[in-house]
Design brief:
The complex is a heterodimer of chains A (581) and B (591). Chain A has 18 helices and twelve strands. By secondary structure, chain A is of the alpha/beta class. In chain A, helix 2 runs parallel beside helix 5 (117-159), helix 5 packs antiparallel against helix 9 and helix 6 (161-208) runs parallel beside helix 9 (277-319). The chains are: A alpha/beta (581), B alpha/beta (591).
């Protein structure tokens, strides 16, 4: 029909490819059920004509019995078709969901900054569920309906070509009118779904901030805002409903017209003695049979608009490519990594540069301590190294290879990072340590947590590694969350370790506990330690001070400490960790 | 309150709209009675057995008129009822959100935000579907009554016999309702698992990326999807089975008419028109048993949904979920009134006795904590990881359930700390503050019209003014998914500004320094004390805070092991000496 239907069909076809046998059986059941449905009115016609014509009662009982049998078998076939279409629909759309999730996870950070997790639920699940609902309904109601429609028209053509022709012409006309009208409704339905995604995004965000809201008395304000968002949904939904309702009424109106037309034609032919009264009833009955598929098709049009809009958004999402193209090289070797920033500058969007002409190299196995004020660009260094962003100018190299030439997975295997903001998921402690990777055995986890001195802590949890954590790590202190993040990178044996203010969330007591472990982690590896506090950089070989996005000072830590004119020495003198210069 | 009463109360939010919806839906279901009668007339007119001497074309014109009315009524029914559906869905959501963000008492969310959102979305839907079913039951009931009356005048015997398989539908549906409930719940739960996993995966997308965990995360997602597929197929096929059975019952009814009418049709007693009438009504008659079946099934489902929604409103009076709240649909809602401080509320002394709290599924908590905070004092709570510092603040503020203890404001016991310890009496900056997708200024002012003019002042007090100056649009900068992502330190200072903006008597900081450099932290305290009289309760392990403290409370394993001035504690408390030493190590070379 039109492009949105073709696009939906193309998207579905991709995901149905591996399900041919089930699709074939589904088709058979559907066709069989449809054919059986068509025999019912034929039996009724025979019955009426024979009854009015005074045929033997025995014959009439046979027709009645056959009618009941056909009814029962039809329903069995259609329930079987329903089962298969649900199976096929869910299997196919689950694959689509998984592909979408994997695809979106691979998109760049700016994408994720622009989409809330609540909004992503709507895009990855909500839209696809609209599609899977549509699929199971599509097969049963629309495809089944179309089959029935074709069957009815063919039989009518065979019985009495004038009636068949009139009805065919009419159905074609109705289809054209309906599909034209449908195009008007799609934008309104899209707007409704956008408004709905906005509302649930709003609610999800507020639910995540509920402590902040309550304890700062912001509840009244949240409610005031919520009325605006909810009102917007109600108004856009009303528009979509008026258009969809109008469409449905149009379809029903057209159907009504068709059966009155057939009745009138049949009556004319009967009065002229060209058909029997049973045949008139047959015509009437066939148009009645059409009522359900036509109403269902019209009913599903509402779903169809929803599904078409959803497919549009799904395809839109799938069409997004990471701006950063992954390289193909596996270049990085094992062991400590070499890092090189070659005249690197960087700006987020087209804003003020955050980093300007950063130029340094880090030999394998050395540790650099990076100092500087909050917001000075230290965290951005990390993001460039992980290739969450590409430099605006210059090149970042790992083991002498431009990051842009490396495979992303390879790059991230080589680098372990503990960020300020530990992200935990709802799941067991194990899930949070392995991030669902079943290849990581409990023995390896055990080694890692023992290495961190966390063994006792994990064993003291109610269910050990199986202890369930709520989303966001509720039930854990921030320090404990940080400890988990440390264990995460212990598990992966990277060649470069980045600790981004990692100790800032830790209690001094706990920090002390893992000092030794961090030392062990840094042994034989290259390290970048970003810290506000001087103590944290004491293990560094090299100290780098970053100010306003530039390297203000860089050199051997011991040498700088000894040089009274250096900024580092100044910081040491200032004491109390007055890192800001 | 029963689900029936809850649903009725909700349906009566705008009684006239609901009544209109009901009348229109009854019309939609009942009008086919006329069409069936007119069609029968047409057939009898054709065969010459018409009781009335009506012209065939007049009859067909009548048919067109009857159907045109039905279509018009249907359009009205769809538009009005679906609009009203949206309105009452908003009522449910508003009641839930309102209770969560400002209801009295302690009520932690029963799941992750992603999971709770599914209650706002799916459970409101399934609850209103129950009301939707009432309209269909009412409509089909009216149709059935009229149809049976008409059919009985033609042939009471056939009428009685064809109704039997239909009546059986009700019984069959009834037997199946417990299964429907079970399957539906399994489906809902598996769906919630899938959606909250998506929310989590994207919430922790940075961790997923830096650990290159995209593949295992996707694999786990596939597993959850499989569980959900099984549940969904069972749920849907079972519903389809029920639907198919009731449709079947109508067709079997037609078969029975055929069997019964063999002799009367041959003799002409039972006309073709009458047969057409019966057959026409039989296609509609399964409607009532089917909708009755749905009514029972949805009654159960809506019960489950009502429970899940009410669970978000712990402690609320029965029926709060369907309270007739003003949705401000016609005019924008007025901004909230600025809180004002009653003279009794001026803080003199806050005391805590025996406060005890445990996190479920965690060994952390606090046990019998006593605390006293005087006006103008600076109290620091310190201790190692897991000592219970954050729990103490959260329990005190009514953000987490307590197992015992009391909080008293100026000597008067506070019954509901969650409602009482809010601005202008008290405000709070959590350890990991959350801002929302609004402008920075809106995040700080939180709708307070008075404060909106003084946002700049709070921002300066929170040492955020330089950051604001660097932003393109200053205080008008949008935060969150469609705006700017702030750094951890900026978020903490923005949260502090938000707290200052409410001008509370008591300021509660949970580890404000965790993402701040030492100088920024020092400036923050200096400005606070230079510019206003402040009473502070602070969780910290920094020397800057220890030095400023009038009193330090040392927690260990959830208990207060010592409290006093820094000097006293360094002399008498071993744990304090350990904390002090370690604070020195992390604060700088010579602390």
């Amino acid at each position: 029909m039109d492009t949105s239907l073709r696009r939906s069909a193309a998207t579905l076809a991709t995901y149905l490819a591996g399900l041919r046998v089930r699709v074939a059986v589904l088709g058979t059941l559907l066709i069989g059920g449809t054919l059986l449905q068509l025999t019912g009115p034929q039996l009724l016609r025979l019955f009426i004509d024979d009854a009015v014509g005074g045929a033997p009662a025995q014959r009439l009982y046979v027709f009645a019995g056959l009618f009941i049998a056909a009814t029962v078998v039809t329903q069995i076939a259609l329930v079987g078709a329903a089962y298969l279409s649900e199976q096929v629909g869910w299997t196919a759309t689950n694959r689509l969901r998984a592909d979408l999730l994997a695809h979106c996870l691979r998109l760049d950070l700016p994408f994720h900054n622009a989409h809330s997790p609540g909004g992503m639920i709507e895009r990855v699940d909500g839209d696809v569920t609209a599609l899977s609902d549509f699929f199971s309904q599509f097969v049963l109601r629309i495809l089944g309906g179309l089959l029935l429609l074709t069957g009815v028209l063919a039989l009518l053509m065979y019985e009495e070509w004038r009636v068949g022709l009139a009805l065919t012409a009419f159905v074609v006309f109705a289809m054209v009118v309906i599909s034209r009208a449908r195009a008007y409704a799609v934008p309104a339905v899209n707007a409704e779904r956008d408004a709905s995604a906005e509302l649930y995004g709003f609610i999800e965000e507020r639910l995540g901030a509920v402590d902040d809201i309550r304890a700062n008395g912001a509840g009244a304000y949240v409610m005031q805002r919520s009325f605006g968002v909810a009102g917007h949904l109600i108004r856009t939904a009303r528009r979509a409903q008026i258009l969809s309702g109008g469409l449905w009424s149009l379809a029903t109106g057209l159907f009504t017209f068709s059966y009155v037309l057939v009745l009138a034609l049949g009556a004319l032919l009967y009065q002229r003695g060209e058909v029997t009264i049973g045949a008139v009833y047959l015509f009437f009955q066939y148009t009645q049979i059409l009522r359900r598929p036509l109403e269902q098709i019209a009913d599903q049009l509402k779903e169809f608009q929803r599904a078409a809009a959803a497919v549009g958004r799904v395809n839109e999402l799938l069409a997004l490519e990471p701006i950063l193209h992954e390289g193909t090289r596996d270049g990085a070797v094992d062991g400590a990594a070499a890092v090189e920033f070659d005249h690197v500058s960087f700006a987020y969007d087209a804003r003020e540069p955050v980093l300007r002409d950063i130029d340094f190299t880090l030999a394998p196995g050395s540790v650099v301590g990076v100092l500087g004020r909050t917001g000075g660009g230290k965290t951005t260094l990390t993001r460039l190294l992980l290739r969450l962003y590409d430099p605006t100018e210059g090149v970042v190299r790992l083991d002498g290879v431009d990051l842009r030439a490396l495979r992303a997975a390879e790059l991230r295997r080589r680098i372990g990072v503990v960020t300020q903001d530990v992200q935990l998921v709802a799941g067991s402690v194990r899930d949070n340590l392995t991030l669902f990777d079943p290849a990581i055995t409990d023995a390896r986890i055990g080694d890692a947590i023992d290495g961190l001195g966390l063994g006792d802590w994990v064993r003291s949890l109610p269910d050990g590694l199986d202890t369930m954590l709520a989303a966001g790590g509720a039930g854990l202190s921030a320090g404990e969350g940080q400890l988990l993040a440390f264990a995460r990178i212990f598990l992966r044996d990277p060649g470069l370790v980045i600790l981004d203010e990692a100790s800032s969330r830790l209690d001094p007591a706990t920090e002390h506990l893992i000092e030794r472990a961090v030392d062990r982690l840094l042994t034989g590896r290259t390290g970048i330690v970003i810290a506000h506090r001087l103590h944290t950089v004491e293990r560094a070989d090299v100290v780098m001070v970053i100010e306003h996005g530039r390297i203000a000072e860089c050199g051997e830590r011991t040498a700088l400490a000894g040089d009274a004119s250096s900024r580092y020495a100044g910081l040491l003198r200032a004491g109390a960790g007055a890192v800001a210069v | 309150m029963s689900v029936w009463r809850l649903a009725w109360r909700l349906a009566c939010y705008r009684p006239w709209l609901f009544a209109l919806s009901a009348v229109l839906w009854i019309g939609v279901h009942a009008l086919p009675v006329t069409a069936g009668l007119v069609v029968a007339l047409a057939f009898d007119a054709l065969t010459g057995s018409a009781p009335l001497g009506l012209n065939l074309w007049a009859i067909l014109a009548l048919l067109v008129a009857a159907e045109a009315i039905r279509v018009a009524v249907f359009f009205g029914a769809v538009v009005i009822w679906l609009y009203y559906w949206q309105v009452i869905a908003a009522v449910l959501r508003t009641n839930m959100l309102d209770w969560i963000v400002r209801g009295p008492g302690v009520h932690p969310l029963p799941g992750s935000p992603g999971e709770v959102v599914s209650r706002f979305r799916d459970d409101t839907e399934s609850f209103i579907q129950f009301i939707d079913t009432w309209l269909d039951v009412a409509g089909t009931a009216v149709f059935t009554a009229i149809a049976i009356a008409i059919m009985s005048t033609i042939s009471p015997l056939i009428t009685l016999v064809v109704l039997l398989p239909l009546a059986a539908t009700v019984a069959v549906t009834r037997m199946m309702t417990s299964r429907i409930r079970r399957y539906r719940r399994a489906y809902r739960e598996s769906t919630a698992a899938v959606t909250s996993f998506i929310g989590d995966a994207f919430g922790a997308v940075l961790a997923v990326k830096v650990h290159a965990a995209e593949t295992p995360v996707t694999r786990r997602f596939v597993e959850l999807g499989e569980v959900r597929r099984t549940a969904a197929v069972r749920d849907r096929v079972f519903s389809e089975l029920l639907l198919s059975y009731s449709t079947n019952a109508g067709n079997i009814g037609i078969g029975i008419i055929l069997l019964l009418s063999v002799s009367s049709m041959r003799s002409g007693e039972f006309t073709v028109g009458e047969f057409a009438l019966f057959a026409s009504y039989l296609t509609w008659l399964p409607g009532l048993p089917r909708w009755l079946g749905w009514l029972m099934a949805r009654h159960r489902q809506s019960g489950v949904s009502a429970d899940r929604m009410s669970a978000l409103m712990e402690g609320a009076p029965a029926g709060a979920i369907v309270a007739h709240v003003d949705l401000h649909l016609d005019a924008p809602a007025p901004p909230p009134a600025a809180p004002s401080l009653a003279t009794d509320d001026r803080l003199e002394r806050l005391t805590v006795f025996g406060l005890t709290a445990r996190y479920p599924r965690s060994r952390h908590g606090i046990d019998g904590v006593d605390l006293a905070i005087e006006r103008g004092s600076f109290t620091v709570i310190t201790g190692r990881v897991g000592a219970g510092k954050t729990t103490l603040l959260r329990a005190l503020l009514g953000l987490t359930p307590t197992a015992g203890g009391q909080v008293a404001w100026n000597g008067h016991v506070v019954d509901d700390p969650a409602s009482f310890l809010v601005p202008p009496r008290c405000a709070y900056t959590p350890q990991a503050p959350r801002l929302v997708s609004e402008t920075l200024g809106q995040n700080v002012a939180v709708g307070d019209p008075v404060e909106a003019m003084h946002v700049g002042q709070s921002v300066r007090l929170a040492v955020l003014e330089d950051d604001v100056a660097e932003m393109d649009r200053g205080l008008e900068t949008m935060l969150g998914p469609r705006g700017v992502r702030l750094s951890g330190g900026q978020i903490q200072r923005a949260a502090a500004a938000r707290m200052y903006a409410r001008r509370p008597e008591l300021l509660v900081f949970d580890d404000i320094s965790s993402a701040l450099d030492v100088e920024t932290e020092r400036t923050l305290w200096e400005r606070l004390f230079a510019e206003r009289e402040a009473t502070c309760l602070v969780v910290s392990n920094r020397r800057a805070a220890y030095r400023r403290a009038d009193r330090i409370v040392v927690l260990q394993s959830g208990r207060v092991i010592a409290s006093g001035t820094l000097e006293q504690l360094l002399r008498d408390c071993e744990e304090m000496r350990v904390l002090w030493e370690q604070a020195g190590e992390s604060d700088g070379a010579n602390g």
